[in-house]
């Protein structure tokens, strides 16, 4: 199913403009993540699509060629998965998954067949007869996913489905979810404030800020070509290099850099993985902190720009706190963004 939102906005009764007029299209089978900080309007947008929230007048929501703007939630055929699972604790896994199908009054044989099918897809067969209370958080979330998918919804909506899980489980379930959603071949929208999660799961990420979609693109596009400082900072933690640009030369507190193009009126950003500690580098600064992260060290360095900058250092030996180090940054790794976009 193709989803299309035109001029869709939401003003809550107290006057809060949670969503400014938004255009969004999601292709058939596409997995789109709504990514943004707390309060930017992700959940509001998801709830409008589900039919749980009424949008402002002038908004239009299309499921293929059907205008569903005025359609009640139960008539939209959407599947939903929430952070809180929302499962029936006293029912078995099988009964939870079959619940929606029973409500649809499908014949028992068909319910059994469909439940067996999703149990298999979600690798839940061994737990089919267990009560929900006897499952781990990760297993419960898989049941929630299986239950949402069993009625074959037109659209699957997921609101921070992994937030309640601990870090390691979250990561493994994240990869599992990315595979499962593609196996289901369903159009899906996934809300998260975690950029790694959005990048791992989605085909396309719509980054939101203050009730607006500020940029939408593939994870690679957003990472490599952010169009605002907000996106550069939120996706991949780009750091601003505050200095004085003179044509293609950037003068910083700790040295000079060559820019890929004229830096007038632009703010220059760089990512920690592009700051290389090497003796011949043109920048110099003082090591303030060193953190060992298994595959690499994260080295925080002062004296290069007004704030500290970080370097991802993958060598076997890391510099020590208090050392002075030289650094280099390839001109291609520098991102120049209009300074006025800081307000995004
Ligand atoms: N019922 C409501 N009445 C008034 N304002 C609301 C209501 N629900 C949400 N808001 C406000 O609308 C804005 C967007 O909220 P929303 O829940 O959509 O954000 P979010 O991006 O999903 O945040 P989070 O990640 O914290 O869930 C926030 O400023 C929030 O306080």
From TrEMBL:
<keyword id="KW-0472">Membrane</keyword>
<protein>
    <submittedName>
        <fullName>Fe3+/spermidine/putrescine ABC transporter ATP-binding protein</fullName>
    </submittedName>
</protein>
<dbReference type="Pfam" id="PF08402">
    <property type="entry name" value="TOBE_2"/>
</dbReference>
<keyword id="KW-0813">Transport</keyword>
<keyword id="KW-1278">Translocase</keyword>
<dbReference type="InterPro" id="IPR017871">
    <property type="entry name" value="ABC_transporter-like_CS"/>
</dbReference>
<dbReference type="InterPro" id="IPR047641">
    <property type="entry name" value="ABC_transpr_MalK/UgpC-like"/>
</dbReference>
<dbReference type="InterPro" id="IPR003439">
    <property type="entry name" value="ABC_transporter-like_ATP-bd"/>
</dbReference>
<dbReference type="GO" id="GO:0005524">
    <property type="term" value="F:ATP binding"/>
</dbReference>
<keyword id="KW-0067">ATP-binding</keyword>
<keyword id="KW-0547">Nucleotide-binding</keyword>
<dbReference type="Pfam" id="PF00005">
    <property type="entry name" value="ABC_tran"/>
</dbReference>
<comment type="similarity">
    <text>Belongs to the ABC transporter superfamily.</text>
</comment>
<dbReference type="InterPro" id="IPR027417">
    <property type="entry name" value="P-loop_NTPase"/>
</dbReference>
<dbReference type="InterPro" id="IPR008995">
    <property type="entry name" value="Mo/tungstate-bd_C_term_dom"/>
</dbReference>
<feature type="domain" description="ABC transporter">
    <location>
        <begin position="3"/>
        <end position="235"/>
    </location>
</feature>
<dbReference type="InterPro" id="IPR013611">
    <property type="entry name" value="Transp-assoc_OB_typ2"/>
</dbReference>
<dbReference type="GO" id="GO:0140359">
    <property type="term" value="F:ABC-type transporter activity"/>
</dbReference>
<dbReference type="GO" id="GO:0055052">
    <property type="term" value="C:ATP-binding cassette (ABC) transporter complex, substrate-binding subunit-containing"/>
</dbReference>
<dbReference type="GO" id="GO:0016887">
    <property type="term" value="F:ATP hydrolysis activity"/>
</dbReference>
<keyword id="KW-1003">Cell membrane</keyword>
<dbReference type="InterPro" id="IPR003593">
    <property type="entry name" value="AAA+_ATPase"/>
</dbReference>
